[in-house]
Each structure stands twice: as structure tokens, then as C-alpha cells.
UniProtKB/TrEMBL annotation:
InterPro entries with a match to the protein in the record: ACMSD, Amidohydro-rel, Metal_Hydrolase
TM segment ranges: none
Domain Amidohydrolase-related stretches: 3-279
Name recorded for this polypeptide: Amidohydrolase-related domain-containing protein
Keywords per UniProt: Lyase
Source organism: Actinopolymorpha cephalotaxi
Keyword check for Isomerase: no
Amino acid sequence: MIIDVHCHAFQCAEHIGEPFRSESARAHGGEVDLTTHREHYRNTSPADTRTIVIGGKARRSGLWVDDTSIRDFVAREPDRLIGYLSVDPTQPGWQDEMRYGHQELGLRGIKLMPMYAGFDPADPAYDPLFAYAEEHGLPLLVHTGTTFVSTAVLRWARPVHLDEVAIRHPELPMVLAHMGHPYEGECLAVIRKHQNVYADVSALHYRPFQLWHSLQLAQDYGVTHKLLFGSDYPFTTVNESIDGLRAVARVPGIPGLPPLDPDKIERIIAQPALELLRLE
């Protein structure tokens, strides 16, 4: 079974404004269709794939996916899909939205976008968010790493800020998205020291040297078991992501240094992420 921990559900006209929409072509060298096509996702994934579906809220960057749309999206395939709510804590009423998404809509985790929304996740002012998630067993998927959006605040994307959150909330499961690229070493340092903090490998395969280098670092630090599979659909697909991981696993490596261990790459692809995140 494949567990995709990072799949978006976007309906462009409704959910994505400026500058996010117009600047998305910078993501990986060309225009991206940001609409989630359910059939396309299913047809480009192994048949037994289960998927965590997220939206996103970041008023500063023009992204706002209402949590009800995520609830409706996953309700059509409840055996395959798990929905997360989203929070932009810079906006009025965010705590009410969080409670509604969890208690009324039944969403099972939280997507957080500090860089896009423009806030420091380590600021104690946001501890009520993390405390609520910890108390109610809501795993976080936190965007870490760079972006194509000009209004996003890059310093709040660095994985090191989540180290402080994990120190104050040690029982809170967190996934740092995209291995924090290009701050992968920082990301690995964070996930190594915290039992309940993981990283996903989504949206990296189309930069193959970066992916190879990141996985080598993870292997050297002994934390490949803390890496979870993700696609970042619609930016890429599950099958393309799996193929990309296997392709870098076949690279001979640098003479005199050990290559990637293909068995460890296969274990990343097959990670029991729902069990690790306490979602089953």
C-alpha cells in the first residue's frame, strides 16, 4: 500500500488567487494546472493508494481553500481519502475555524503554511494552535522550504522554527513538507531529535540531483525511517514521484563513498505513514 501524505484539492477559480496563481509557473519550469482532477490522480497512482488531502489557507499569498470543500472532497471516497483542515492564524476567527473543521467537519489533521501566510511558527503567540492539535491528536503538515510566491516570507519556511514547537509540544505529530528544501540538512537535524517529527519527500523528484543529495544526507544521518512518501499533486503525480525515487536509488554515487541503499528507498515509498501519524 502507498500512503501519499501530501495531496492538494484545488478548484482554481474558487480557491487560488494572486499572486499564487500567476507565479506558480516558477514551481518547476512551466505552467502548472493547479486544478485537482480526481480521475487523473487515481489513474496516475497505484490502485491501493491512500491519500491525505489538504487545501491551504494563506491570505497573504492568495490561497484560501475552505475546509468544507475538503470535507466534501474526501466524503466521496472515505476508504481512500483522509482530509485535513487548514489554518491561517494571522486572520480573525482562526480558532473558531479550527474547531469547526475538527469538531463539525470531522477533518483529522491540520495544514499550516507559515511562509505563505507570513508568521513565525515558533512565536509562543501561536501555542494555542499547537496545544489544540496536540490535545486532540491532529497531526500537522507544515510547509517548509522555498516557494515560487513573491509575497511569501522565506525565513518562516525554515525547518529550524519547528524545533521550538516540537520542544514545547513533544507529543504532537508533525510532517515537515518537501524535506525543507533547500534547507534539507536543517530539516534532517530537526526530525532526528524529535520522536514525533517527520519529513515528506514530496515535490523533489523533478530536481533529481537535489533529491539524490537530500537522500544521501538522510542516509548519512540515519533518518531515512523518518521520511514519508508524498506527491504534492497536482504539481506532480504519485507514479512520477515513485519513479523518481527509484531512479536516484540507481545512481552509482561518488567513487569512494557508499551509494544510496535501494532497500531504504523502497521502505520510504512503503512507509506506514497513517500508523506513524496515529491516523489508524
